[in-house]
Amino acid sequence: MPELAEVFWYAKQWDAGQGRRIRAVDLHPRKRVFRGCDTSALHDALLGTSLKKAHTHGKQMLFEFTGSHWLAVHLGMTGSLETKREPFEPGKHDHLVLHTREAALVFEDPRQFGAIRYYHDKGFPDFWKKLPPQPTDKAFTAVLVAKTLNRHARVPLKALLLDQRYFPGIGNWMADEILWQAKLPPHLLSGDATGKQARDVWRLTQKISAASLRIIGKDWSDPPKSWLMLHRWEDGGKCPRCGTLLKRETVRGRTACWCPKCQK
DNA sequence: CATCATGTTATAAT
DNA sequence: CATTATAACATGAT
């Protein structure tokens, strides 16, 4: 479920544990979410530390702990973070629990497409420093977006918007929203977009990212009904702009939803 | 029982 | 090598 703003919201859910000493770490080393992670190092390292600060970048989260310990979390499709009152007993899909005196910081993920990694570094881990500019950054420029569209000229716009190397944080509903507001069909090949259309994609990527952080990221409020977002999964959902029945079809392996009348 | 799911990545194919 | 297509991952909802 989580895209840019949802990830931002989830990251804040652990704030209740800030500055609280971690007294126990519960994890299941063989779970898929720990692939490539040294779980015993993670376990031993976090004991006795406390959470200093949560960072997010696109769909990536990074939790900074005292003693130069870092926990990178990706929520995949079904991951979530929550804080529970102690004493807390982990459930079936609670793969990592950081226990403090009052609050348990819980990572839950039924499908386990999410991932957890551990780093011990003086500053931000290398992978974090190399992440591409976010849509809300100054460095996310119209020129950069235009170049990306040209470089991947044969990729449908919808698929390109989902590419985290260029549009970090954009997921399925945001990509559909951007294309709907830009009045561009999801199948349009990136290289076939005009200069103005590329600029619209750039502008709306920024606008929708910023607005969803303000609205969903703040307290998980609904975006305006004038957006496509609230209509795209309803059966028989209609375009909020013209009332036409919305269409759904697979584009590059993911479901796209669009208005066949507005988006041409 | 079959299909689908707001994500990523390894591997195959071009 | 660069780019693109497909399958796979693990589980729950419909």
Question: What would your notes on this structure say?
Answer:
With 264 residues, the chain is an alpha+beta fold. It has a four-stranded antiparallel β-sheet, with helices on one face. Strand 9 (247-251) and strand 10 (254-258) form a beta hairpin. It has two domains: 4-129, N-terminal domain of MutM-like DNA repair proteins; 142-258, Helicase, Ruva Protein, domain 3 (Orthogonal Bundle). The radius of gyration is 20 Å and the shape is elongated. The model has no long low-confidence stretch (mean pLDDT 95). It contains seven helices and ten strands. Helix content is 27%, strand content 22%. The chain binds a DNA duplex (14 and 14 nucleotides) through residues 1-3, 6, 32, 59, 74-78, 93, 109-115, 152, 154-155, 159, 162, 164, 171-176, 233, 252-255.
Write the layout of secondary structure elements.
Elements: H1 4-12, E1 24-27, H2 39-46, E2 51-57, E3 60-65, E4 69-74, E5 80-85, E6 94-99, E7 103-108, E8 115-120, H3 126-129, H4 142-151, H5 157-161, H6 172-182, H7 195-219, E9 247-251, E10 254-258
Antiparallel strand pairs: 1-6, 2-3, 3-4, 4-8, 5-7, 6-7, 9-10
The chain binds a DNA duplex (14 and 14 nucleotides) through residues 1-3, 6, 32, 59, 74-78, 93, 109-115, 152, 154-155, 159, 162, 164, 171-176, 233, 252-255.
